[in-house]
Write a structure and sequence with these properties.
Length: 321
């Protein structure tokens, strides 16, 4: 028999995975016929996530008879054959929902914005801690929007696919921190969903340095946090964690000078500039002004959506799983 870790437990497994941990292989298993959920087997299994009555273990089962109400285990029904790429291998005969399947599972009971945030974390290059929030370091992205789209195509008709596809319209890869997720969503979302409707953006993409400037840049290229190709503009989030100290300050200023000489317009976001909604709104106005992007007037409903998005993404007591 097999345990198949899913839903909130799968989110915990994936979002806390650090850069020095291995990523399990995808499995070719396409059925839940051997899935189990007994407490005895749960206790004996070498599982990669903790569980308790307050944070139960979430697992998949194949039929109504296997659904159980247990203090430390929550079962979820998935009937029929699994789409390709649904499971990844754990130790023994146990599995975890793949990042793509976990994204689909997350669509149940979550708003579009909540689901989209999780998508940015799954497609991002950073990990969080086991409390379900924060930042613990860099790692390779777990999946991509393209891989999620292919998975959803193979899962057509499954519960949650429609909402998951709607979220994919605004999902970009490679965000490197929760603050970058805030900025990217504010830029990419339309005003009705709480954003400012910026032109196309790219997240943490390569910007080649002109050859004669590389001695100052000390690199052949930079990685632009949020790059807008249509206006040749780059927005950087300068966190205190990574941009303090003399060397860091010198490197940041040299980078900014080189980009400006290359006619890449730059703006730097710091927490002090975006620490409340009015500051955040003013900072975005400054970005549009600097990059030559037309300003527009927002309706009261759009301002309310923008306020709600900001307050949601800056609620640091919130947990993702």
């Amino acid at each position: 028999m097999s345990l198949i870790v899913s839903h909130e437990s799968a989110l915990c497994y994936w979002l806390t995975k650090t850069g020095d941990e291995c990523v399990p292989d995808y499995s070719d298993v396409r059925t839940l016929a051997r899935a189990t959920a007994s407490m005895g087997e749960v206790r004996d299994a070498p599982l990669p996530v903790g569980y308790s009555e307050k944070r139960p273990l979430h697992v998949l089962v194949a039929d109504q008879q296997s659904l159980r109400s247990l203090h430390q285990v929550k079962t979820h029904l998935f009937g029929g054959r699994l789409p390709p790429g649904s499971l990844c291998e754990l130790s023994g005969a146990n599995y975890v929902s793949s990042p793509e399947f976990t994204f689909l599972q997350a669509s149940a009971g979550r708003s579009l914005i909540e689901l989209l945030e999780l998508g940015y974390y799954l497609c991002g290059s950073f990990s969080i801690d086991e409390r379900g929030r924060g930042y613990t370091g860099q790692r390779a992205p777990l999946t991509t929007p393209e891989d999620i789209a292919r998975f959803l195509d193979s899962a057509d008709g499954a519960y949650g696919v429609r909402k998951a596809r709607s979220a994919l319209r605004y999902l970009l890869p490679n965000a490197a921190s929760p603050m970058e997720v805030l900025l990217v969503l504010a830029f990419v979302l339309p005003p009705r969903l709480g954003g400012w409707g910026f032109p196309e953006i790219q997240v943490n993409q390569r910007i080649d340095v002109d050859e004669h400037l590389r001695v100052i840049a000390e690199s052949d290229f930079f990685v632009g946090d949020i790059y807008l190709p249509s206006v040749n503009g780059d927005v950087e989030y300068d966190s205190e964690e990574f941009h303090t100290g003399r060397w860091r300050a010198d490197h940041t200023q040299a980078r900014r000078n080189v980009l400006e000489v290359m006619n890449v317009k730059t703006m730097s976001a710091t927490w002090s500039q975006i620490s409340d909604f009015e500051k955040f709104r003013t900072f975005i106005w400054m970005v549009k002004e600097r990059f030559g992007i037309a300003h527009r007037t927002f309706t009261p409903q759009e301002v309310a959506a923008q306020t709600n998005l900001y307050e949601y993404l800056t609620d640091f007591s919130r947990k993702l799983f």
